[in-house]
């Protein structure tokens, strides 16, 4: 058995793992990374990047269909478009491939040694890796677990045949005529919306009383309106029970009785579970927080020298959180003091319209009896939004009533994901309303907190509820 000795071993090359390894290599740590599939993890191969590619293609297709319908108000008309989904998927795969190569070259440039194969813990300092050429033993002073997550199955609807996860949905080369999406969270809605725009008849089945139950209701209303607009049926307080006898319909229990939803494909998007089983982790006897690895603020597990980052450590399961944790752990291992502000993690839904939220919602901010101010500006009063046919939505700022400290910022509307960094900056820097008001927002961008004219916003009492 070949043996490698290193300062740091990173298990998993998703956004958490590869950022950690690259930063550690740049900081001079002798680093090894092991990945069982392709560099980039869920995010690059079967998550963020492929879904955003499909969403973009679907938006473009929907626009073309709209202009072809002759109902558009801009005076534009085109011929009816056609879709070649196999080409769309090939285009997406090309982007993924370029980014895979990008990660590989960044790792190489940072002098990180890459091993391809499945890692298995022997003990808290030693891991075996089954590579194509044999088993490698890696001894490391520190180990970072970055094994991520995988789609959670439903017991009554195991994956296989027409029942697919987001991974298979993002590789379909033939458009399903009918698609049932189980789960009205962000993954189900992003993909459901894209397929509806491409031409599938989509039904979303959600167990809670509304879609996107993790976001406050006000933010989700424009999304619900738009789903209706594009013909998506949403069944709330509904539970999928299984496939019908012939397998071409989904049996759903609703308040109004049992329904059969025609479904050429059934996309199960009910959440993701951490990759913690079957590779020796269970024998380390690490402290768990439910199914996830328990970590402290600096991503230490309960075992000395073993760290964990990203989805394997729980919510929010987001690529940028995994990256921030990865970079921080690398700095700590290199002897630098580092921390980051969990409150400043943006959450973005690339639904239509998009939702962005950083910090506290009004209800969260009010918890504990705190007095707050809320500033809200609707896009229906914003000139730029009007010119983009994007009037449904708003920007909202939540601040402490006593000292104007910004506690949270949220928005729903076309393109608002681009506000996430500005929102995050305000929270991270401890901005006050005066700072936001003093920031000059370009008038024609119309994407800041302005929209009322060249003077921009003044969060005066008149605007604050
Ligand atoms: P992962 O990306 O899951 O990577 C873990 C890696 O570890 C994998 O490559 C895996 O093969 C490897 N691995 C596991 N076990 C072993 C082992 N024993 N040996 C070797 N290697 C192993 N997040 C966002 O922030 N924005 C988005 O827009 C977004 N969109 C998404 C859309 C979809 C459809 C999905 C499914 C997810 C989306 N996410 C998004 C979530 C994002 O993909 C994850 O939060 C992110 O990938 C987590 O990173 P990670 O490094 O923790 O794990």
Describe what you observe in this structure:
With 465 residues, the chain is of the alpha/beta class. The chain has helices at residues 15-26, 41-46, 48-69, 85-109, 166-169, 186-198, 217-229, 319-333, 362-366, 383-387, 420-429, 433-438, and strands at residues 2-11, 31-35, 113-116, 118-123, 126-131, 134-145, 149-151, 163-164, 178-182, 201-205, 233-235, 239-243, 249-254, 257-262, 265-268, 272-274, 288-289, 292-293, 306-308, 347-349, 354-359, 372-378, 394-400, 406-413. Strands 1, 2, 3, 4, 5, 6 and 19 form a seven-stranded mixed β-sheet that branches. A hairpin with a 5-residue loop joins strand 23 (394-400) and strand 24 (406-413). Helix 1 runs parallel beside helix 8 (319-333), helix 3 packs antiparallel against helix 4 (85-109) and helix 3 packs parallel to helix 6. The chain is globular, with a radius of gyration of 24 Å.
């Amino acid at each position: 058995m070949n043996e490698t000795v290193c300062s740091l071993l990173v298990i998993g090359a998703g956004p958490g793992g590869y950022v950690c390894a690259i930063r550690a290599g740049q900081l001079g740590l002798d680093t090894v990374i092991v990945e069982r599939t392709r560099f980039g993890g869920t995010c690059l191969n079967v998550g963020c990047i492929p879904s955003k590619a499909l969403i973009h293609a679907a938006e473009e297709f929907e626009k073309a269909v709209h202009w072809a319908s002759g109902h558009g108000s801009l005076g534009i008309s085109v011929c009816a478009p056609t879709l070649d989904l196999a080409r769309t998927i090939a285009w997406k795969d090309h982007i993924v491939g370029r980014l895979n190569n990008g990660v590989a070259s960044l790792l190489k440039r940072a002098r990180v040694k890459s091993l391809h194969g499945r890692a298995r813990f022997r003990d808290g300092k030693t891991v075996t890796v089954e590579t194509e050429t044999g088993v490698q033993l890696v001894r490391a002073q520190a180990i970072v677990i970055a094994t991520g997550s995988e789609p959670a199955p439903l017991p009554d609807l195991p994956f296989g045949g027409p029942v697919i996860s987001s991974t298979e949905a993002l590789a379909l080369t033939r458009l399903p005529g009918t698609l049932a999406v189980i789960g009205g969270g962000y993954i189900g809605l992003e993909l459901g919306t894209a397929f509806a725009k491409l031409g599938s008849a989509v039904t979303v089945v959600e167990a809670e009383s509304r879609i996107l139950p993790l976001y406050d209701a006000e933010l989700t209303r424009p999304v619900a309106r738009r789903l209706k607009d594009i013909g998506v049926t949403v069944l709330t307080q509904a539970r999928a029970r299984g496939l019908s006898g012939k397998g071409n319909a989904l049996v759903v229990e609703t308040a109004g009785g049992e329904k059969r939803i025609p479904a050429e494909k059934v996309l199960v998007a009910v959440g993701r579970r951490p990759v913690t089983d079957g590779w020796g982790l269970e024998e380390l006897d690490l402290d768990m927080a439910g199914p996830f690895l328990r970590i402290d603020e600096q991503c230490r597990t309960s075992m000395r020298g073993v760290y964990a980052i990203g989805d394997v450590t729980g919510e929010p399961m987001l690529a940028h959180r995994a990256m921030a944790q990865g970079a921080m752990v690398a700095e700590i291992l290199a002897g630098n003091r580092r921390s980051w502000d969990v409150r400043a993690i943006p959450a973005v839904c690339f639904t239509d319209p998009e939702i962005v939220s950083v910090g506290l919602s009004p209800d969260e901010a009010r918890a504990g009896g705190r007095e707050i101010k809320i500033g809200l500006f609707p896009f229906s009063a914003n000139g730029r939004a009007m010119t983009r046919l994007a009037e449904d939505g708003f920007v909202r700022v939540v601040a402490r009533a006593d000292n104007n400290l910004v506690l949270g910022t949220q928005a729903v509307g076309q393109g608002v994901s681009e506000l996430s960094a500005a929102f995050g900056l305000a929270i991270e820097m401890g901005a006050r309303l005066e700072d936001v008001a003093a920031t000059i927002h370009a008038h024609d961008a119309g994407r800041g907190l302005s929209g009322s004219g060249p003077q921009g916003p003044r969060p005066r009492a008149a605007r604050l509820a």
